[in-house]
Structures are given as structure tokens and as C-alpha cells.
Amino acid sequence: MKNLLFFGDSLTAGHGLPAAASFPALIQRRLDEQQLPFKAYNYGMSGETSAGGRQRLASVLARHPVDVFVLALGANDGIRGIPVRETTQNLQFIIDAVRRQHPEAQLVLAGLEFPFDLGPLGGHRLAHYATEFKALFRTLADKNSLPFVPFLLQGVLGRRELNLADGVHPNAAGQKILAENVWQILGPLLVGTRQGALLPE
């Protein structure tokens, strides 16, 4: 069995839901159905920022060999207005650390967009921040030649029927869409293992 690690925040953890409803658990179910030799580990932590993930990473990497690592951090950075440069540096640190310890591992990066309506908050500064925040993920993916999920919350953000009462965290139906968004990129990489090694980056 190969190890598939999902490293993220409450969106990955499945905040407010049973563990089996989180998108990593749903992807595990799909892997089992297709008889793909992967064990998915959900290392989502609610409230985690990219800086928190940077601090937590070593303890996670010490637990398992890593074959595939899905990085889905940054939403809480956006909510807190953390400078884009800091988020970028933290995510690059995580990418570098995974590659250093597990050079054969395949990394996948999930993109995010600023999650709130900027209107009430006002000002061009926030609009500029939102644009920079969205762009940082694709820039990182391109720089590091990573398979890229363009927007983890595609089809879920802003849809009341797909989120919990807080309007921020996906409900069980929303998590199914997150699983599909990730699988569109991740699935072809994992299916390649039927022929042997992971597809090259």
C-alpha cells in the first residue's frame, strides 16, 4: 500500500461532520472501489494557517513514508489577511520539506480564493489582496511543476445548500463536490500506479 497524505485545515478535516464525510475519506472510498493501492490519511486541522502547517509538518512526516502529498492550506491566511508573501513562503517551505524528505513523492497543490464578499469590507486594498491571494497558488504550482487543483471550493463557495449554517464550511453534500474537484487532478495520477511507479512530475 502507498500512503496518500492530505495536509490542510478545516476544509480538509471536514469541520462539523463525521470523519467519514470529509473529502479525504470520500476519496479513500473511491480508491477502494477502483482497487487502487492507497491508504489516505487526513491531516486536516481546523483553524490551521500556513504558518501553523509549517510548524506541524515535521511531526506528520515522521509518522509515515509519503508517496503522495496533497497540500490544501491557506484559507485561514486569507480570512486573517496574512500578507500573501508570508503565505507563499510558508507553502514553499512545506513543498521543499516534503521533497527533501521524500524525493520520490508526488505533490499536489490545491488552490483557494478569498472566501468572502469584499463589498461590506470596502476598499481597493482588499480587492487587490483577493487578486494576489488567488494568484499565489497557481504561481507556486507553476514554479514547482505541481499538479494543481485550481479552486478547492469550486461549486461550493457561496451556495447555502452546500454549506453548514456558518456559511463557510462545506456540509456533507459540499464535501462530495470537494472530493470531485480534487479527484479530477489526483485521480489520473493515482490510476497511473496500476502500471507501476507514480507518474513523473
UniProtKB/TrEMBL annotation:
One of its GO terms (biological process) is lipid metabolic process. Signal peptide: none annotated. GO terms for molecular function: phosphatidylcholine lysophospholipase activity. InterPro entries: Ester_Hydrolysis_Enzymes, Lipase_GDSL_AS, SGNH_hydro, SGNH_hydro_sf. Pfam families: Lipase_GDSL_2 (PF13472). Residues 6-177 form the SGNH hydrolase-type esterase domain. CDD domains: Lysophospholipase_L1_like. This is Arylesterase.
